[in-house]
User: Which sequence fits this backbone?
């Protein structure tokens, strides 16, 4: 037996939130992208319910334009931990004629995911969707609640949010509504990395420096891939890079890096002059890009 | 790492967002791409300086109108600790946001425009910090650059604020006054050359010295049961542990405890966290515990030490901060959420409306509208296990949930 349990305030808060979700909702689900934030969520959920199994499934909304490393990692993690994984594909939503594939230079399936997600919530009657969004990521997310209520259409009404006081989380909703839950709302990017280091968590290899075929556009490093539109005059080059966030290939830019271990990554983040979402092409569309997507039901 | 939570309050144009932006900029918490975006937007608006408020105002409507609508959370850290700022707007119609943002804060910063001094809004902001019993209050007298960095003006405002302090019933606070220019950066992170007469610390160095633990150890231990963990696996066949967060004091293996409402006496058998067993867990730890006796415990029950009983009652008075567009009326019913426990509550009396400018009470009140603060009596369908807010912040507060809309309609502080 150990002496004193030295709790970490952010971890303790996240575990508290996970337990509230399971106690207050009938059908929760954890939205899993294979990125570092959702990997951190899985770890926190394990701790919240130990020695019981994580009492809800994981769901991946698959754009089909993933980094193959992320998918391999996802399948390995799910197998090792014995978790239930639901996959719903954006391709199916396109085939059903519900959304139209974007075309052109900045085309991406990032926005299309919303429809697939909302359909899946309806299909499984999920009443709580746990996500890894953090308030420090982006300005619209800084306004987000921990329990964030969405109407029947999955929409976020940012001007009419429930106040959250002390530790009390109000999960009361009507049939058809659902709540988006953000257990690591108060974590920063550095908090997540420090936690990954401390817990010795495995993460997909694309988070570490590796040689990759890329091309430059608008000062950002884009992956050379079948999924990413590329002009003829955009020259492919081999470059040492890593990814700070993992979205789909068409919306995630790489950064120059030689960090090949977690501690090197942590050191790099600490000194970084560019914010995490500075390399997210989806946010560069306009100053209010995230706010608009959130109103429509995005993650 | 320690996290210090800060609530900010200021009226429109007091420069609150600018102060926060300045804190971020001078602690090098703003990355190049964010500074670039601010520079770009500032230029677009025709400013010849960096408008740091653009770093915090997140919603389109806020940027368009140059105001802060909702509580935003801002993060920065120094080498010694992390900070979370709850940026709450100061307009009179947004009292609810300040109460919300301040509910979890260790310290409150109240901004005063040096040109205008203590105004009616300042009264309200100070009132709310008292209502929430925030111990450390920092009064930042801003825009000193616009009053020639005058010591006289600073002293006058300080004297006015001290008069305000004498009107408050809450006596545990410590109040610090700092003259700043958020726009120019004086006394925010770096001490100012323009105000040699000011002998105190800069805002940041003052914050760095504050204690976050804030005497948790002196508060009675409360363990509200959130969830019962029953793995039902072969290895843990009959295992049953009670998950929850420790609020106040500490729990130790072997402690004699009482389970409420059943009033069953037992002992703490083990404290678990992620498969490890511990002898002790202190306040704010999320753990799970097992008990010596096979007692029936479910969500909403509370485990307390045998000699530290809370009050167990169906009727009480509370100070309510009302947050819903639909008014609170005599006789109306709500779901009352006290921690993780939910009961039905009926408003049995509206005792008096409290003026947030310290000018007294209104006795004859028929209903409460949004942003009103009042003393209200409640009757519950079953007892809850509470302390007064003064004794225990977490166990002395609750929220009221509207039965039709499910909205969080108000917050209560038990008297």
Assistant:
């Amino acid at each position: 037996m150990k002496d004193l349990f030295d709790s970490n305030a952010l971890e303790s808060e996240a575990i508290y939130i996970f337990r509230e979700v399971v106690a207050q909702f009938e059908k929760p689900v954890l939205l899993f992208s294979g990125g570092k934030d959702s990997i951190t969520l899985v770890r926190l959920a394990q701790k919240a319910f130990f020695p019981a199994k994580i009492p809800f499934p994981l769901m991946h909304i698959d754009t089909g334009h993933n980094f193959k490393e992320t998918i391999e990692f996802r399948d390995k993690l799910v197998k090792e931990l014995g978790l239930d994984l639901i996959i719903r594909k954006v391709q199916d939503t396109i085939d059903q004629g519900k959304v139209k594939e974007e075309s052109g230079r900045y085309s991406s399936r990032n926005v299309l995911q919303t429809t697939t997600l909302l359909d899946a919530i309806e299909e499984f009657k999920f009443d709580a969707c746990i996500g890894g969004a953090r308030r420090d990521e982006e300005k619209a997310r800084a306004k987000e609640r921990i329990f964030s209520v969405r109407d029947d259409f999955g929409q976020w009404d940012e001007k009419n949010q429930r106040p959250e006081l002390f530790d009390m989380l109000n999960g009361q909703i009507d049939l058809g509504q659902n709540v988006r839950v953000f257990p690591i709302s108060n974590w920063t990017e550095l908090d997540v990395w420090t936690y990954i280091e401390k817990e010795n968590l495995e993460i997909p290899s694309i988070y570490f420096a590796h040689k990759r075929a890329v091309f430059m556009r608008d000062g950002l490093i884009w992956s050379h891939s079948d999924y990413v539109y590329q002009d003829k005059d955009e020259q492919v080059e081999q470059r040492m890079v890593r990814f700070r966030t993992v979205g789909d290939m068409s919306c995630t830019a790489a950064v120059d890096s030689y960090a090949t271990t977690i501690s090197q990554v942590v050191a790099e983040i600490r000194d970084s002059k560019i914010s995490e979402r500075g390399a997210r092409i989806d946010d560069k569309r306009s100053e209010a890009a995230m706010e608009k997507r959130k109103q429509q039901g995005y993650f | 790492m320690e996290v210090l939570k800060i609530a900010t309050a200021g009226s429109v144009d007091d420069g609150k967002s600018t102060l926060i932006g300045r804190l971020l900029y001078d602690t090098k918490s703003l990355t190049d791409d964010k500074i670039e975006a601010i520079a770009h937007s500032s230029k677009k608006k025709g400013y010849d300086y960096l408008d740091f408020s653009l770093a915090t105002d997140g919603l389109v409507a806020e940027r368009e109108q140059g105001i802060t609508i909702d509580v935003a959370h801002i993060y920065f850290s120094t080498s010694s600790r992390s900070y979370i700022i709850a940026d709450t707007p100061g307009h009179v119609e947004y009292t609810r946001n300040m109460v919300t943002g301040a509910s979890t804060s260790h310290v409150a910063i109240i901004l005063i425009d040096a040109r205008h001094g203590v105004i009616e809004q300042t009264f309200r902001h100070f009132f709310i910090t008292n209502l929430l019993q925030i111990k450390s209050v920092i009064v930042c007298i801003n825009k000193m650059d616009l009053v020639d960095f005058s010591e006289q003006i600073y002293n006058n405002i300080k004297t006015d604020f001290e008069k305000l302090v004498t009107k408050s019933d809450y006596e545990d606070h410590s109040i610090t006054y700092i003259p700043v220019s958020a726009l120019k950066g004086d006394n925010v992170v770096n001490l100012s050359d323009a105000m040699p007469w000011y002998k105190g610390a800069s805002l940041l160095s003052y914050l760095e010295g504050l204690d976050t633990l804030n005497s948790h150890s002196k508060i009675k231990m409360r363990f509200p049961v959130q969830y019962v963990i029953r793995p039902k696996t072969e290895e843990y066949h009959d295992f049953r542990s009670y998950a929850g967060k420790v609020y106040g004091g500490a729990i130790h293996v072997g402690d004699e405890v009482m389970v409420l409402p059943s009033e069953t006496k037992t002992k703490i058998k083990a404290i678990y966290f992620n498969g490890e067993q511990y002898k002790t867990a202190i306040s704010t730890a999320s753990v799970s515990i097992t008990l010596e006796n096979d007692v029936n415990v479910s969500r909403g029950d509370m485990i307390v030490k045998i000699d530290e009983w809370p009050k167990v009652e169906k009727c009480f008075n509370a100070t309510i901060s009302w947050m819903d567009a639909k008014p609170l009326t005599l006789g109306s019913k709500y779901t009352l959420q006290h921690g993780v426990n939910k009961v039905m509550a009926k408003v049995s009396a509206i005792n008096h409306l409290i003026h947030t400018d310290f000018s007294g009470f209104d006795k004859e009140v028929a209903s409460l509208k949004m942003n009103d603060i009042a003393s209200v009596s409640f009757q519950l369908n079953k007892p809850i296990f509470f302390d007064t807010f003064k004794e225990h912040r977490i166990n002395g507060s609750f929220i009221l949930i509207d039965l039709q809309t499910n909205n969080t309609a108000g917050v209560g502080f038990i008297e």
